[in-house]
Amino acid sequence: MKTRLVPRPRYMAWLQRWKDRQVIKVVTGMRRSGKSCIFELFRGELRSQGVPDTNIQSINFESLDEEYPTTARELYRYIVQRLGPGINYVFLDEVQHVEGFERAVDGLALREDVDLYITGSNAYLLSSNLATLLTGRYVELRMLPFSFAEYLSARADESNPDTEFNRYITYGGMPFAAQLDDERSILDYLGGVFSTIVLEDVARRHPRIDMRSFTDTAAFLADNVGNVTSRKRIAAGLSSAGAKANPSTVGNYLDILLENYLLFKAERYDLRGREYLATLEKYYLGDLGFRFWLLGKTQGDVGHRIENAVYLELLRRYRSVSIGKVGTAEVDFVATGDSGPEYFQVAHTVLPDETRDREFRPLRSLEDNYPKTVLSLDRVGVGDYDGIRQENIVDWMLGTHQAYK
């Protein structure tokens, strides 16, 4: 079954905004999160705008359907020989498989008749020589799996958002998984994606890694999303569970998980001291489906799962997302966009008075006029309270928002 192309308006708006500008468009993100599909959607848009096929070149270096050049010089010549008159739109998918790809990309970027788009499935793409070589000459779009709005669009026959949201925070938002209905198939698919990442990206760059220990670390982090932690605490937790770990090894595994977008780190920010703190960060999964695959848990821990889902949604809508510290209290998320910071608290429910007081207290202590929102699954009690907005998470996820910032 082929993945149905689902509209992804934030990403399409970003690509349209940068179209025909003399910078390289670099699209990064987890494997199978939809990078190739967004390029396919964009190429369709180019054709609808009158761009002929002769001026569109697309190469997926992981496809076995055709033989493509595998060195920089060969790739450059291959593309240049096929350029049409006027502006040519060149798409290079998973370009890191080409030896010395940075030189080919740099050469193509210097041509006035080429508008260049490239993708990669790990952060190494921009931590390599490419970033140094192209300083000031590229822009990056970080793609995530489906938002909940995109997920519902993919599951067009399903009409109950609340029911689908429970499914979303259980099985995640990987585009192909959204089309699967039975749990066994979803489990098999997610396991295949995880194994591909481990074999194609992790093992290739880190051939001496202990895969058992690495997977144990990933499972521990999946079970502790949203908990304040450190490398030392993670190592201690793994050791108590009988797994081999030390802070140095855990640090290496964290770097690998972050590098492949399986994990994201939210740093803590002192809202009074106006500085980032060096310790006790939080980690969130790049897709909640991997929690299901690694742990086999389909229920429970709803609070941390919805917190993870909100964190990813904030990453889609804002430039940066951190954890806020206010004295001894904590603001779940500080999201910064073009208009300054916005503050968010996330809770399963705030219906008991003591819970409402606890969740609202950190926001009330902030002495500024930036927007403040409490998100929960409650559908009663929503509204404004002394300048703090309380919203239902599902409704907030499906709201109309600005394009990708």
UniProtKB/TrEMBL annotation:
The lineage of its organism: Bacteria, Bacillati, Actinomycetota, Coriobacteriia, Coriobacteriales. It comes from Parafannyhessea umbonata. This is Uncharacterized protein. InterPro entries: AAA_14, DUF4143, P-loop_NTPase. Residues 24-152 form the AAA domain. Residues 200-339 form the DUF4143 domain. It comes from the Bacteria.
